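User: quick one, sequence for these tokens?
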């Protein structure tokens, strides 16, 4: 079987700094993978390389066997890959509804875009805020909008970059339910998150990075106990109970 996503020796250098160093791993249809590592480990840079937002210095990324690096960004979206950003970037002056209509258009939705945008907002519990300018949203609602914008493209592979950062425990619970529902619907997930406890309730595999390289990949329990992972976190995994 061809992997849904395959990274092969992906390296990204910024001048003298190797942010991502020869990373190889593959994700099958239906997998839910947690990607962990200290700040600066290279997680966001890897996400950028896996989603066409950045080009690796060397290496290959394949989506269903086809090189993703040769695809234009909108083609990557249409091939079913969506991601959220660690730093949320909505169009601040546009109402929440319009912020969701833009990715619907990029994803080539047809028919009643307003109704579809509202339906997506409803899935993340944000329909009541549809008319508000996104600049007026709370941190929790911004995270929901970010998720809605990703869902609007109907991804088969969704990459979430620190979805729980800045959220309260109850907001994390609500968002976790949404993520679990996506999984149940067959969406493949890769999730970067420092709140390890909450992350481990969502994934069945963990990939750990340190200084740009993958240092462990496998069952969550064994990865979290791996001496290299414990050392990379300087003896203390942040938010182990979070
Ligand atoms: N555009 C960039 N230019 C230069 N250095 C960068 C750039 N993006 C990331 N880096 C550096 O690459 C390393 C990995 O960063 P990042 O991928 O954001 O890590 P993480 O998401 O794991 O915290 C860091 O040292 C960071 O400063
Ligand atoms: Mg990051």
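Assistant:
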């Amino acid at each position: 079987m061809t992997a849904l996503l395959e990274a092969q020796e992906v390296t990204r250098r910024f001048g003298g700094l190797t942010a991502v160093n020869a990373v190889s791993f593959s994700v099958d249809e239906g997998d839910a993978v947690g990607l962990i590592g200290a700040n600066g480990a290279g997680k966001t840079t890897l996400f950028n390389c896996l989603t066409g937002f950045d080009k690796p210095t060397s290496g290959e990324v394949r989506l269903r066997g086809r090189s993703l690096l040769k695809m234009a960004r909108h083609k990557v979206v249409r091939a079913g890959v969506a991601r959220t950003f660690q730093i949320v970037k909505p169009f601040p002056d546009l109402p929440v509804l319009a912020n969701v209509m833009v990715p619907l258009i990029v994803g080539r939705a047809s028919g009643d875009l307003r109704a579809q945008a509202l339906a997506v907002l409803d899935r993340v519990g944000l329909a009541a805020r549809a008319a508000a300018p996104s600049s007026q949203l709370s941190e929790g609602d911004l995270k929901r909008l970010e998720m809605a914008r990703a869902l609007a493209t109907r991804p088969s592979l969704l990459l979430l970059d620190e979805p729980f950062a800045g959220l309260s425990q109850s907001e994390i619970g609500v968002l976790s339910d949404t993520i679990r529902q996506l999984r149940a619907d067959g969406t493949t997930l890769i999730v970067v998150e420092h709140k390890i406890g909450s992350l481990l309730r969502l994934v069945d595999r963990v990939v750990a990075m340190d200084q740009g390289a993958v240092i462990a990949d496998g069952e969550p329990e064994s990865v979290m106990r791996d001496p290299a992972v414990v050392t990379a976190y300087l003896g203390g995994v942040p938010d182990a109970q979070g």
